[in-house]
Amino acid sequence: MTFIFRKLNFPYDYGSLAFFDIVAISTLFMAILFWIAKASVYMERFKRKTRKRKARVIHD
Q1: Sign (positive or negative) of CA dihedral 15, 20, 26, 29
Q2: Tens of pLDDT along 12-52?
Protein backbone atom coordinates (compact mmCIF):
# COMPACT_ATOMS: atom_id res chain seq x y z
CA MET A 1 0.00 0.00 0.00
CA THR A 2 2.82 2.37 0.85
CA PHE A 3 4.49 1.49 -2.43
CA ILE A 4 1.32 2.41 -4.35
CA PHE A 5 1.05 5.75 -2.54
CA ARG A 6 4.68 6.49 -3.34
CA LYS A 7 4.11 5.78 -7.04
CA LEU A 8 1.00 7.98 -7.11
CA ASN A 9 2.80 10.79 -5.22
CA PHE A 10 0.33 11.20 -2.37
CA PRO A 11 1.70 13.63 0.24
CA TYR A 12 1.84 11.78 3.55
CA ASP A 13 4.36 10.49 6.03
CA TYR A 14 5.36 7.04 4.74
CA GLY A 15 5.82 5.58 8.20
CA SER A 16 2.28 6.42 9.28
CA LEU A 17 0.69 3.75 7.10
CA ALA A 18 3.17 0.98 7.84
CA PHE A 19 0.48 -0.70 9.95
CA PHE A 20 -1.72 -1.10 6.88
CA ASP A 21 1.17 -2.67 4.98
CA ILE A 22 1.57 -5.22 7.75
CA VAL A 23 -2.17 -5.92 7.76
CA ALA A 24 -2.23 -6.31 3.97
CA ILE A 25 0.71 -8.71 3.94
CA SER A 26 -0.74 -10.70 6.84
CA THR A 27 -4.11 -10.92 5.12
CA LEU A 28 -2.49 -12.12 1.91
CA PHE A 29 -0.49 -14.74 3.82
CA MET A 30 -3.63 -15.95 5.64
CA ALA A 31 -5.53 -16.14 2.34
CA ILE A 32 -2.76 -18.23 0.79
CA LEU A 33 -2.78 -20.60 3.76
CA PHE A 34 -6.59 -20.83 3.58
CA TRP A 35 -6.50 -21.78 -0.11
CA ILE A 36 -3.74 -24.34 0.50
CA ALA A 37 -5.94 -25.93 3.18
CA LYS A 38 -8.95 -25.90 0.84
CA ALA A 39 -6.88 -27.49 -1.93
CA SER A 40 -5.66 -30.26 0.37
CA VAL A 41 -9.24 -31.06 1.45
CA TYR A 42 -10.32 -31.12 -2.20
CA MET A 43 -7.45 -33.44 -3.14
CA GLU A 44 -8.25 -35.78 -0.26
CA ARG A 45 -11.89 -36.00 -1.36
CA PHE A 46 -10.80 -36.63 -4.95
CA LYS A 47 -8.43 -39.42 -3.82
CA ARG A 48 -11.17 -41.00 -1.72
CA LYS A 49 -13.59 -41.03 -4.67
CA THR A 50 -10.91 -42.53 -6.91
CA ARG A 51 -10.14 -45.26 -4.37
CA LYS A 52 -13.84 -46.14 -4.07
CA ARG A 53 -14.15 -46.27 -7.85
CA LYS A 54 -11.12 -48.57 -8.12
CA ALA A 55 -12.46 -50.81 -5.35
CA ARG A 56 -15.78 -51.20 -7.19
CA VAL A 57 -14.02 -52.15 -10.42
CA ILE A 58 -11.94 -54.80 -8.64
CA HIS A 59 -14.98 -56.34 -6.89
CA ASP A 60 -17.28 -56.32 -9.92
Answers
A1: negative
A2: 565 567 777 778 889 999 999 999 999 998 888 888 777 76
The pTM is what? 0.52
Q: What are the phi and psi torsion angles at 29 (to 5°)?
A: -60, -45
Angle at 5 between CA 4 and CA 9, to 5 degrees: 120
**3-state SS, one letter per residue, for the chain:** CHHHHHHHCCCCCHHHHHHHHHHHHHHHHHHHHHHHHHHHHHHHHHHHHHHHHHHHHHHC
Do residues 25 and 6 touch, judged by C-beta distance below 8 A?
Answer: no
